[in-house]
Amino acid sequence: MAKHFRKLAPVLAVAALALSGITPAHAAVVKQGTKCAPAKAKKTVGSTKYTCGTNPAGTPAGLTWVTADCISAGTAYATAKGEYDGFTTSQTSTLTAIKASIDASKHSIDVLNQEIAATKTKQYIVGYDHTVKPSVPIKVTGIDAAISAITTHIAEVTAKRDNAGKQRDATKVILAAKYTATQIAGWENSPISALSNPDVSVQNFGNWIRAYASYDTAVNSGNKDIANLQKVPNNFQNKLTSAQAQVDSMTTRYNQAIANQPTQAQTIKSAADQALSVRKSACKIGL
Questions:
Q1: Which regions in the chain score pLDDT beneath 70?
Q2: Maximum Cα–Cα distance for the chain, whole Å?
Q3: Are residues 156 and 243 in the same domain?
């Protein structure tokens, strides 16, 4: 009877394990790399804590016992590798963006240079020929020629205005001997009223006042035209200077990024390599 019981003992042990849900393989000594079930099951052997899961190192496949150190090392490596991959992607993206900014500024410079060149061949209206009916515009080629033509015209009109002023003042002296200051002031304030006066000197006084005002208006208009024309190359030049400064700044930044990239990349990669080495040791089978 005792002999028969000894033969049944192994069978009864297996049956007991089966009833408890543990197979002989799973009932083996808990070591890192041995098969286990179910997932997320936990065991503590001495001071070592195990979890049933997938080994971060990738071997062996399937559910095996994994130490807490292995899991931590796996997480640390994943983080380090993510930082390296992120740095590489970020650097590529940054360099692409900087290069695009440089190209855009260079294109702006090309366009501005073309516009500056166009001012040398563009035709500008500098006045009108009133000797024909209808009046026809007077045109010159190039912004410099336009400024020169208007400047010459201003000088001519200024001379006429100054002469009108002298004639006005001389006529006023003549009128002062015949009329009161109040009368003269009235004609000055309303030159057109002087035109109906029977005195030719009074009429001349009104005409010279009107002529002076007309010439003065033409001078002021010419000066405004010159100022507006001068703004064109000045604005282009300011924009050109700004665009070139942008190119220089972005180029410096681009070159610095290129120069620093290997060192920064190697530093981050070294950290990832070290984390991988730690994971390899911590996730070694048999621990």
A1: 1-28
A2: 166
A3: yes
What is the total residue count of the chain? 287
pTM: 0.60
User: Collapsing DSSP states into helix, strand and coil, what is residue 55?
Assistant: coil
Tell me: do 81 and 101 sit in the same domain. Answer: no
Q: Is the separation of the CB atoms in 121 and 142 below 8 Å? A: yes
- Which backbone phi and psi does 174 adopt, to 5 degrees? -65, -45
Q: How far does the chain reach from its first CA to its final CA, in angstroms?
A: 44
Residue 287 lies in a domain: no
Name, in order, each residue with C-beta under 8 angstroms of 172's C-beta and a sequence gap of 6 or more. 184, 205
Q: Is residue 280 part of a domain?
A: no
Q: Supply the range of the domain harboring residue 22.
A: 2-85
Whether residues 142 and 161 fall in one domain:
yes
Between CA 190 and CA 199 the distance in angstroms is 16
